[in-house]
Write a structure and sequence with these properties.
The protein is of the alpha+beta class. It has eight helices and twelve strands. Strand 9 and strand 10 form a beta hairpin. It is elongated and about 70 Å long.
């Protein structure tokens, strides 16, 4: 029989120590130790900021066999309880009991969603959390091989004339992507999109650490990519990709990503990361084919 109860203070501290070790192993694929440390600290910081943060343990025959750490996000819209870790290695019944407790925790606090990050490294837990709708996923690629553009394709810095129309379109498109992913209402997504672009590109094309590129087929502009260099130690980040509507379905999405890899390597980074919304199946398939690997999948279930 599985019993779920609140952890003692000592048990909660033991869980956090073990979770920190688990996170360090989870992010071992990042090339720079400082980047790995940043990612671990980010997850630990989110736990410290959560509201109603609670650790539960699952007991079988008087022995602790699993943990659930859960809290309420202080900023999420819609409101969300978030599973920071659900772990019960080799104990399917305990995993189910802890998962049931997560739902009770969320419904008792009247939140609208229950969220989690996968993969967890625990097959029984992934089987429970995997059906949650995918909202977004973080991916990364090692730039160990030079990227080569097809004949006739070239890249150049985005021009000032291109920047204004690009920015207007990206603000609208990003807001729609957020709303389509189910992460926020459209009104909230529009506010978030406008705010984030203003914060990230305060000096437009001249913003330090950022570069914006145009992919050309001959003398015709067909796509753009926005990069942040040194986003984390050793890693650049794709902040935006856009292929002109009339040019879609011609392979330019793949090509502009290769252009981004070239620019990232030239800036001195050895990895390139990105975030893709779960609703964007076409982009996720492209990144899979280009060799990007999934690091974290952010999922949430409507209650």
């Amino acid at each position: 029989m599985t019993i779920v109860r609140a952890a003692t203070q000592a048990e909660a501290q033991s869980w956090q120590d073990g979770w920190q070790e688990h996170l360090a192993a989870h992010y071992a694929g990042y090339s720079d130790p400082a980047a790995r440390r940043q990612l671990v600290d980010r997850r630990l910081g989110a736990w410290q900021r959560t509201r109603h943060g609670t650790v539960y343990v699952a007991e079988e025959d008087g022995r602790v066999v699993g943990h659930l750490a859960i809290g309420v996000s202080p900023t999420a819209d819609p409101t969300e309880a978030f599973i920071f870790q659900l772990r019960a290695p080799g104990r399917e019944a305990a995993a189910r009991a802890l998962h049931d407790q997560a739902y009770r925790f969320a419904t008792d606090r009247g939140v609208q969603r229950l969220g989690a990050v996968t993969p967890t490294g625990d097959p029984a837990v992934d089987a429970l959390l995997g059906p949650y709708p995918l909202r977004a996923q973080q991916m990364v690629k090692d730039l160990s091989e030079p990227a080569v553009l097809a004949d006739g394709l070239t890249g150049r810095p985005m021009s000032a004339a291109e920047y204004g129309p690009w920015l207007d379109g990206e603000i609208v498109g990003y807001a729609q992507d957020i709303a389509d992913s189910g992460s926020a209402t459209l009104d909230a997504a529009r506010e978030r999109s406008a705010r984030e672009f203003a914060e990230l590109l305060p000096e437009g094309l001249g913003t330090a650490g950022h570069s914006l590129w145009t992919l050309c087929d001959g003398d015709r502009a067909v796509a753009h990519i926005w990069l942040r260099h040194g986003h984390m130690p050793g890693m650049g980040f794709v902040f935006g990709v856009n292929v002109y509507d009339a040019e879609r379905g011609k392979g330019y999405g793949r090509a502009v990503m290769l252009l981004g890899e070239q620019a990232t390597a030239a800036a001195g980074d050895v990895q390139l990361g990105l975030n893709v919304f779960g609703s964007n199946t076409v982009a996720r398939n492209l990144y899979d084919k280009l060799g990007y690997r999934v690091v974290d999948q952010f999922r949430s279930d409507d209650l």
